[in-house]
Amino acid sequence: MQIKIRNKQYNTGTAKKISEYFYGQYGEEAGYSEILYKKKTQEFFLHCSGGAKSIYPKETIKPLTLQETRQWLQRHNCDIFIVI
Length: 84
Fold this sequence. Notes:
four-stranded antiparallel sheet; two-stranded antiparallel ribbon; globular
């Protein structure tokens, strides 16, 4: 997915995948996924998508601050240390 938000480009095809989180089973209406990416510019974003009754009924990109990225990693029990 490629999108421009506030004059910044986000592209899942060129960014590095760092981690991912899945809620529910594939195909469930309430299920969803969040995939954390890191851009070459050291910026982070989530690529989110899900079923019709999920918190992400439409595919979206969510830019994250470094603090939000750390919180997301902690919330999903990821043992990843990110050096910027």
